[in-house]
Design goal:
With 180 residues, the protein is mainly alpha-helical. The protein has helices at 40-67, 72-97, 102-130, 142-167, 174-177; strands at 2-9, 12-17, 26-27, 30-31. A two-stranded antiparallel sheet has the order 1-2. 36% of the residues are buried.
């Protein structure tokens, strides 16, 4: 059940959860939120959390691929793989600090982030592909950084409603909140 008061964790307001079974819509201690009960703020925070890991991985992957003069496809593959690695790693870091073992932390990260990161990667890579000249831009080109920033904005806008929907059903980042 979600307590409407918020606690401060790492500079962000995260809802505090009670761990009680209280109705027919419970899923592993997480009450399903119907309609507008899941806040856009909560969904935006979850999306920003995922986007941070994705952005780190994407930038590192694109920087490595571009610096090594790789072609576009291997560079994008590396960036996508690293987006997942960094995205999962940020979630795991938090739940490991909460006392979970590595295997359990990995399970939580996979449950919390897989759909969100997948949608982000589809949205941001599609944006870069359709942005004129972005695929041929190098690290020293303003176009590289401009298209990357736009792709992250598009990914955020596309993924936030999905995260809101998932959190409202006790899925996605809802599985992480009990560890904050």
């Amino acid at each position: 059940m979600v307590d409407e008061s918020a606690i401060t964790a790492g500079g962000t307001d995260m809802p505090q959860h009670e761990h009680t079974q209280s109705g027919p819509h419970e899923h592993h201690g997480q009450r399903e939120h119907h309609g507008g009960a899941t806040s856009w703020s909560m969904a935006a925070q979850a999306t920003l959390h995922c986007l941070t890991g994705c952005a780190i991985g994407e930038i590192v992957g694109m920087a490595i691929g571009t610096a090594l003069a790789w072609h576009n496809v291997p560079t994008m593959i590396l960036a996508i793989v690293l987006a997942f690695v960094f995205g999962y790693s940020l979630t795991m870091r938090g739940v490991l600090r909460a006392g979970l073992d590595v295997r359990s932390a990995l399970r939580v990260a996979l449950a919390a982030d897989t759909v969100s990161i997948t949608i982000m990667e589809l949205a941001d890579n599609a944006t870069i592909v359709v942005f004129p000249g972005a695929m041929d831009a190098t690290l020293s080109d303003v176009l590289f950084w401009l298209s990357l920033a736009l792709s992250f904005a598009v990914a955020f806008l596309v993924t936030t409603p999905v995260n809101r929907w998932m959190i409202g059903r006790g899925k996605g980042h809802a599985v992480v909140h009990q560890y904050h």
